[in-house]
């Protein structure tokens, strides 16, 4: 067993993990932070996206021990300080960017990373950035609209597919 300590959503946490424990497993099973979803275990779906030291990471492909000393942000830490939805979460709600919700945490975390890198992405840039995230329900159209709306852009011109 290896002791790991990291900051998650601004709070320092510690735990003991086996060397093979994935960050997603540590978050869900050890810390009971079940907002990070595990959809495939093969890095295909993106449901497990978190931010590690400011970068979007698929937590099913990273060992918990690799996050030693890191600053980790999860979907649980995305709301505003008063508990209200942040601008991305609100845009997903306003533009119907979710259906079953399974992919939503990963989509929101990916959207946050995209908007940090590119505050005003084009529709094609949003679609390209989301290639590592799978949604089986929405067809992506409203997810793209939500992300563009969260960036402050007018989404009325986005044609339905």
From TrEMBL:
What Pfam families does this protein's entry cite? Fer2, Fer2_2
**InterPro entries noted in UniProt:** 2Fe-2S-bd, 2Fe-2S-bd_dom_sf, 2Fe-2S_ferredoxin-like_sf, 2Fe-2S_ferredoxin-type, Beta-grasp_dom_sf, Diverse_Oxidoreductases
Instruction: Extract the Gene3D superfamilies matched here.
Output: 3.10.20.30, [2Fe-2S]-binding domain (1.10.150.120)
Segments forming domain 2Fe-2S ferredoxin-type: 2-78
The protein's UniProt keywords, in alphabetical order, are: 2Fe-2S, Iron, Iron-sulfur, Metal-binding, Oxidoreductase
CDD domains, per this entry? fer2 (cd00207)
The highest taxon in the source lineage is: Bacteria
The answer to whether UniProt assigns keyword Oxidoreductase to this entry is yes
In terms of PROSITE patterns, this protein maps to: 2FE2S_FER_2
Q: Which GO terms describe its molecular function?
A: 2 iron, 2 sulfur cluster binding; metal ion binding; oxidoreductase activity
Protein name per UniProt: Carbon-monoxide dehydrogenase small subunit
From the broadest rank down, the organism's phylogenetic lineage runs: Bacteria, Pseudomonadati, Pseudomonadota, Alphaproteobacteria, Rhodobacterales
């Amino acid at each position: 067993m290896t002791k790991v300590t990291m900051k998650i959503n601004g709070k320092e946490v510690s735990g003991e993990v086996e060397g093979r424990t994935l960050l997603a497993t540590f978050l869900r099973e050890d810390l009971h932070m079940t907002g990070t979803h595990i959809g495939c275990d093969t890095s295909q779906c993106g449901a497990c996206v978190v931010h590690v030291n400011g970068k979007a990471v698929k937590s099913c492909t990273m060992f918990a021990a690799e996050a030693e000393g890191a600053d980790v942000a999860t979907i649980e830490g995305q709301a505003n300080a008063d508990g209200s939805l942040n601008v991305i979460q609100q845009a997903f709600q306003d533009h119907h960017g979710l259906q079953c919700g399974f992919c939503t945490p990963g989509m929101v975390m990916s959207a946050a990373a995209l908007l940090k890198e590119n505050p005003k992405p084009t529709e094609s840039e949003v679609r390209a950035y989301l290639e590592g995230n799978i949604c089986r329900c929405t067809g992506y159209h409203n997810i793209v609209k939500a992300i563009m709306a969260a960036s402050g852009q007018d989404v009325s011109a986005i044609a339905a597919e």
